[in-house]
Amino acid sequence: MSHDVNPIDLSVFAVSVLFSLPVAESSEMITGFVGYNVTLPCSYDAKHYGGIYMCWGRSEISYSGCDNEIIATDGFKVTQRKSHRYQLSGDLKHGNVSLTIIDAEMGDSGIYGCRVQIPGLFNDLKHQVTLTMQNIHNTTASPSSTASPETQTVISVTQGKPVHSIMMHFLK
């Protein structure tokens, strides 16, 4: 009894496996506070690649482009923006394409995807961020005696001022 494999069936199987794999190369979780600016980090080596197209989408990273695109740049200037609340306030010419959400709201919670289109097949830099928004007036943060550097959270907040990063340390 022979079990010949049809090359077309094998190709269909390979493509279906490829498209079932996760797309994000890196991911992280960020906590933001209602009424403050929050920055979601993303960067690439602009010295090596120069100014190139990138986008932020409001969903998991797709296999091409950005689903639910909220902001995009050609590497030199913002070319598309869904709302004035979305800013690329980093230095684009140095590859800082971090997304700043101005005056963040509870509805900003969710998954964001940064895609930098690196030349060549399957070379794109993909970074996924899960943003959790909290109302600072209803939140009580208490230092934990068991916190370690691995459990520290980087939170970037501002209220109507340039973005500054604040490192919250909960150490013994």
Automatic annotation (TrEMBL):
It comes from Paramormyrops kingsleyae. Residues 22-132 form the Ig-like domain. It is a single-pass type I membrane protein. GO terms for biological process: apoptotic cell clearance; cytoskeletal rearrangement involved in phagocytosis, engulfment. PROSITE patterns: IG_LIKE. The keyword S-adenosyl-L-methionine does not apply. It comes from the Eukaryota. The keyword Cell inner membrane does not apply. This is Ig-like domain-containing protein. It is found in: Membrane. InterPro entries: Ig-like_dom, Ig-like_dom_sf, Ig-like_fold, Ig_sub, Ig_V-set. Belongs to the immunoglobulin superfamily. TIM family. One of its GO terms (cellular component) is membrane. Transmembrane segments: none annotated. SMART domains: IG. One of its GO terms (molecular function) is phosphatidylserine binding. Keywords: Disulfide bond, Glycoprotein, Immunoglobulin domain, Membrane, Signal, Transmembrane, Transmembrane helix.
